[in-house]
Amino acid sequence: MDGFHRLLDLEPIEVNLFRGTNPPPEWLVIAKRVFGGQVLAQALVAAQRTVEDIAAHSMHAYFILAGDPQVPIVYEVERVRDGRSFATRRVVAVQHGRPIFIMSVSFHRGEPGFEHSFALPEGVPAPEDIPPMAERGAALARLPERVRAYWTRVRPIELRPVHLDRPPEGTGAGGRQYIWFRTVGPVPDVPELHRAMLAYTSDMTLLETTLIEHGTSVFNDEILAASLDHALWLHRPFRIDDWLLYAQDSPAAGSGRGLARGLIHDRAGRIVASVAQEGLIRLAR
User: CDD domains per the record (predicted)?
Assistant: First the structure.
């Protein structure tokens, strides 16, 4: 958790300009590029540093180039608008003099109004009824080595997938998976930090959902996979150090791209966030 906090504690280097560091190598999903969730979270932190007393409610981002994990990332924030109810920021992440990522963030001052939410999906067990990774030896043993390494990797987020061996094997999961998650340690009562950590986590496992229907995985050497864009909406307060359920599905794929969606529920069943992402899922040439 100390490393997670350092990752999200950007260095201010000028007005509207921030610098973010990269995590240790063992955190990296793919050693040669920065994890997309890191850039999402750091960009959100940069945008949050330029507003006061107003909360982020939606983010829309495009991944332009793969990030270099060997050098810091510079985030430039444009203060597009400051209104009475809403504020807008545009963030550009730069490495080697080139934009690698752009994101628009909208902020809203909370107000009373209509509320509704889908319930938890039926048949999904509680997180306490799902063994932690350290106790799932038999299921892990059936996985390909690279997939097993992903699930057992050192990270600040604990993942408890409901069906551990189903997505990689493609046994009729129907392009759908459910994963409980939370941070491995407590998080201070700073809502901006919880939002940034959720943005980080929202990019985990989502692209994998687009390949479940096809019986393969992003860890297959014959698949070239990468996130192209990412949208995140925050609906109500939550704590990321308590269990949240990430219900993911993939309604469509075509032309070398796959669409994945996610609903993030709290323990009470309420949807606290919604996610959508399109990714490249190309057969390697």
Answer: Thioesterase_II_repeat1 (cd03444), Thioesterase_II_repeat2 (cd03445)
Query: Which helix (H) or strand (E) element contains residue 11?
Result: strand 11-14
Over residues 240-247, the mean pLDDT reads 97
Residue 85 designated active-site: no
- Kindly report the CA angle at 10 between 188 and 205, in degrees rounded to 5? 70
Residues 57-72 pLDDT 10s:
999 999 999 999 999 9
What is the pairing mode between strands 86-95 and 98-108?
antiparallel
**Amino acid (1-letter code) at residue 93:** A
165, 203, 249, 266: which is the annotated catalytic residue? 203
Residues 40 and 101: their CA atoms lie apart, in Å, by 9
Pick the catalytic residue from 42, 106, 248, 277. Answer: 277
User: Beta-carbon neighbour count of residue 114 at 10 Å?
Assistant: 4
203 a catalytic residue? yes
- Cα–Cα distance measured from residue 165 to residue 163, given in angstroms and rounded to the nearest whole number: 6
Give first-to-last CA distance, the chain, whole Å: 39
Catalytic-labelled residue, pool 42, 104, 217, 227: 227
Query: HEC string of 2-17?
Result: HHHHHHCCCEEEECCE
Give per-residue pLDDT as tens, 197-236: 999 999 999 999 999 888 888 888 888 999 999 999 999 9
DSSP 3-state of 138: helix
Residue written as tokens 């940069």? 46
CA-based nearest residue to 78, from 99, 105, 113, 59: 105
Residue of 94, 116, 119, 90 whose CA lies nearest to 105: 90
